[in-house]
Design a protein that fits this description.
5-stranded mixed β-sheet, 46% helix, Arc Repressor Mutant, subunit A, D-Maltodextrin-Binding Protein, domain 2, single chain, 12 helices
Length: 303
């Protein structure tokens, strides 16, 4: 097995079909298929099941895919470190994040980091918690910032920041004077919540299941800005985290009322990486910057 074969195998495993992988690699499909067949011959067993839908990894292929992913990530890390030896203070940090922390915490951290390391660039994707975990596990992102992420095999939490889940409303709303509130009472008002796949929604669904509550939301969305606006415009109330509305709370535009349901009282922003991978220097430096920014904000750090 050579590196080219490993790279081709890795891309076919990611793409799921020879055609998609050949387009991404700019390699003829016939040549790509031939390399995969040669690799399987060398291994002595099939790495893919072929069907009309494409290529699916066999159990042997799953093992090889984990190996290939780490090799590809290590190759990228080596290139970054060689560049630094040449005095090129540069690199790319790939981040996927929950939307609620992007405009404030994450962007301020990136700004502080680039002030001292202007040669480092960032790729940022905004997705839900489930997809964040998947992206980090697949090696598509270096760092993930998820709300209440699941600690799965291959995933390592490098930082956890306490982020209280609250009911957010306009100052004129009847709930604004409350010191705390139970989800049962919240359901009596027009409610905005995230769609399925978001960490916040997972907690809400679990709280409803435990308390045998029927969830009937006026708005379900994948946009945190929409949740803010729903509350700000007096349409109703939104369930959201405090960090997501930090600026609006500070300016008095919105009021946050903590939820008392046990399931909803313990929540966090989880900064995660692929545990088996040796992180590039730029990624390690940015992880430190994320922690330093959290400390500077005097937020409660859990890990």
């Amino acid at each position: 097995m050579d590196f080219t074969q490993l790279r081709y195998f890795h891309e076919v495993a990611r793409a799921g079909t020879i055609r998609k992988a050949s387009e991404r690699l700019n390699v003829a499909a016939s040549a790509l298929s031939r390399q995969i067949q040669q690799l399987e011959h060398q291994v002595g067993m099939a790495l893919f099941d072929r069907n009309s839908q494409g290529m699916r990894l066999t159990p042997a292929g799953e093992i090889y895919a984990r190996h290939a992913k780490l090799v590809m990530l290590d190759e990228e890390r080596a290139r970054n470190e060689l560049a630094e030896l040449k005095g090129l203070k540069r690199g790319i940090v790939r981040v996927v994040s929950a939307e609620g922390v992007v405009s404030d915490y994450l962007m301020q951290t990136i700004a502080a980091f680039r002030a001292s390391s202007p040669g480092v660039s960032f790729q940022l994707g905004v997705i839900g918690t489930d997809d964040i975990i998947k992206a980090v596990k697949n090696g598509d992102a270096d760092i993930g910032l998820a709300f209440n992420g699941r600690l799965e095999a291959e995933i390592e939490f490098r930082l956890q920041i306490f982020d209280r889940l609250c009911v957010v409303c306009a100052p004129s709303h009847p709930l604004a004077k409350k010191k705390s509130i139970n989800l049962r009472e919240v359901l009596g008002y027009p409610l905005a919540i995230p769609v399925t796949g978001f960490g916040i929604r997972t907690l809400i669904d679990e709280a409803c299941r435990i308390s045998r509550l029927r969830l009937n939301a006026a708005l379900m969305t994948n946009c945190i800005d929409a949740l803010r606006a729903f509350a700000f415009n007096g349409i109703g109330v939104s369930v959201i985290t405090q960090l997501s509305v930090r600026r609006e709370l500070a300016s008095g535009q919105l009021i946050a009322v903590p939820l008392t349901n046990p399931t909803l009282r313990h929540s966090s922003i989880d900064v995660m990486v692929l545990g088996a991978r040796r992180q590039p220097q730029a990624v390690e430096a940015f992880l430190k910057q994320l922690r330093d920014e959290a400390v500077a904000r005097k937020t409660q750090i859990l890990v």
